[in-house]
Amino acid sequence: MLDPLSDIIALLRPSTVFSKGISGAGPWGVRYSAFGHPSFCTVLEGSCRLAVDGTEPITLEAGDFVLLPATPAFTQSGFEPVQPVPFDPHASVGVTGELRHGRQDGPPDVRMLGGYFMFASPDADLLVSQLPALIHLRGAERLGVLVQMVRSETGDARPGRDLVLARLVEVLLVEALRAVGGDEAPPGLLRGLSDPRVATAIRCIHDEPARPWTVAALANEAALSRSAFFDRFARIVGVPPMEYLLGWRMSLAKDMLRRGAGKLDEIAGRVGYGSASAFSTAFARRVGMPPKRYAMTAV
């Protein structure tokens, strides 16, 4: 069976990766405005405070890893009372040098490696909407190594740099998201994959999206009664099984249309529709425009 998490990350195609060193010393505080793109950070030494809008403030320590899937506004600071300095992250896009907050000379109180990336796919909400605003992992050594590799690759201009960075960020995403499952995750794919019965159904959908799935057929695969499966899937994933199936089929279809991967009737067949007209009707209802128009506007 296919891996649904890998499927989605592959469709999102993370790219345009930047990273930089970040440090702070003395009394310091920075108020970042909302950025909108995924950002990440690992703490190399020292500690600081992080307050992401909509979440409780936390203390970051050496070895911690943070992923902000949509990077809302947040405040980062030392532990002394200070008025945070406003900072627009868009103003530093593309800047890869070290950023120092607070006292500019002497040893820092905290050293971090941070960065951000963008999704090439316009369907980024497919994943981001199912994630917490803040992912904080303690003692994440593997993720710390990955961030340092991203930093090293960002600073070089070696052949294949962009491809290496894209692959490193894909691995970084998988490593971070693996740790977010379970009851602590919000309803969505990650929580669904942590439930063995629901995960079986999700993998069936990803493995054979063109199969004429019904709730009863998926319930049978999950070894549950129809009603128990429907309730469990909807509660854990956040949408009913057929809604998830439709969403995944349309995500695949949009990707194929953007890439020009086949004629309309071929794409229709690959995502479970018996005719191009039936697919066009379903696509327009879901996306808001016919598939041919979508293909032209998505180029």
Number of H/I helices: 12
CATH level 4 superfamily of the largest domain: Regulatory protein AraC
Which residues sit in consecutive blocks of at least 5 with pLDDT less than 50?
A: none
Query: Architecture of the largest domain, according to CATH?
Result: Sandwich
Provide the succession of SSEs: HEEEEEEEEEHEHHHHHHHHHH
Q: How does the major sheet shape up?
A: 10 strands, mixed
Q: CATH fold name of the largest domain, please?
A: Jelly Rolls
Shape: elongated
User: What value does the Rg take, in angstroms?
Assistant: 22 Å
Gist of the model:
The chain has 299 residues and is α+β, with helices and mostly antiparallel strands. The protein has helices spanning 4-12, 125-128, 141-155, 161-178, 189-193, 196-207, 215-221, 226-237, 241-259, 264-270, 276-287, 291-297; strands spanning 14-25, 29-32, 39-52, 58-61, 65-68, 74-77, 85-87, 99-102, 110-119, 135-137. The model has no long low-confidence stretch (mean pLDDT 89).
Which short descriptors sum up this protein?
21% strand; Arc Repressor Mutant, subunit A; 12 helices; Jelly Rolls; 2 domains; 299 residues; single chain; elongated; alpha+beta; ten-stranded mixed sheet
